[in-house]
Specification:
six-stranded antiparallel sheet; 3 helices; about 10% helix
Length: about 290
């Protein structure tokens, strides 16, 4: 049961009395990014209607992303509701100059807030009579990314309660995320500028200064077709970086980027590579399960 404003309820009641009266509806999707072209909290507003729709002071574009709701699961209590949606995008649909689907693949929409409202109209040229919020949540998973479309799952805000308790997890590896506030390291201090070598592919990045220390780090491109894109480094060896997910296109020789050192979350790496043992939040001397009594 969705709450509706009195004006909308009266409008729908009148339509119900007119059995053959057409009902004009438009689904309006609001994506509030954690980071984007306008900085923190950038908003993308699109509709599946053929014309723009102005709802609650926001203009939902009809000439941008094509979004459609698929499977929808609604439950009571503390169960997490989920909405699965598909997004079709053109190369001209970008975030910070990066194609939308490439941004989705590289994690730019991780944690993005998504709201789906259904607007009811008397005429496509008139403002909506009212709207009902069908779903609101956060991007929880990217299920598939293709050349022209992607499928994502949005979970309700209850997903924020899905955290480990107690907070401290007793394990040999460090619980901090590299360069976060608990780690205390400044990311920019561990970045090295470089240029792509010849023969790069969407997943392999030749670089003369590459070393194993960059494994599990990140690379951010500043030039070429991938400018503005960041990717995780799955593995690194002398002269070569292997990315965890393919880029939108292969970097050209000379494309600029910055590579940041990675960490395997062990005490030895924390001390030897970063000299940051004081902030290590693991328990390396916890006995292995098979030797504990």
């Amino acid at each position: 049961m969705r709450a509706a404003a009195p004006a909308l309820a009266a409008f729908l009641a009148a339509l119900r009395a007119q059995r053959d009266a057409p009902v004009l509806m438009a689904d309006c999707y609001t994506f509030t990014l954690r980071q984007g072209s306008s900085g923190l909290g950038a908003v993308i507003a699109v509709t599946n209607a053929d014309v723009p729709v102005t709802l609650n002071g926001t203009v939902f574009r009809a000439d941008s992303l094509l979004v459609d709701g698929l499977q929808y699961r609604c439950a009571t209590g503390l169960d997490v509701d989920r909405q699965r949606i598909t997004i079709a995008a053109r190369p001209s649909d970008t975030i910070n100059g990066v194609p939308f689907l490439a941004s989705l693949r590289t994690g730019l929409l991780d944690g993005c807030e998504v709201q789906r409202d259904r607007a009811y109209l008397r005429d496509w040229s008139a403002p909506p009579v009212g709207s009902v919020t069908l779903f609101k949540g956060r991007v929880s998973s990217v299920d598939a990314v293709g050349r022209t479309s992607a499928e994502i799952t949005v979970a309700s805000e209850l997903v924020l309660l899905d955290v480990d308790v107690p907070r401290n997890l007793y394990q040999p590896a460090c619980n901090h995320v590299l360069y976060d506030s608990g780690c205390g390291l400044v990311k920019s201090a561990y970045g090295t500028a470089g240029q792509a070598g010849a023969g790069a592919t969407p997943t392999l990045l030749p670089w003369s200064a590459a070393t194993p220390a960059f494994a599990q780090g990140t690379v951010s491109f500043s030039g070429g077709a991938n400018a503005g894109t960041s990717a995780n480094i799955k593995a690194a060896a002398a002269g070569m970086l292997t990315l965890s997910a393919p880029l939108a296109g292969a970097p050209a020789a000379g494309d600029g980027f910055t590579a940041y050192l990675g960490c395997d979350h062990t005490l030895a790496t924390c001390r030897g590579r970063f000299g940051n043992g004081g902030n290590f939040r693991g328990f390396p001397f916890v006995p292995a399960p098979e030797t504990a009594y």
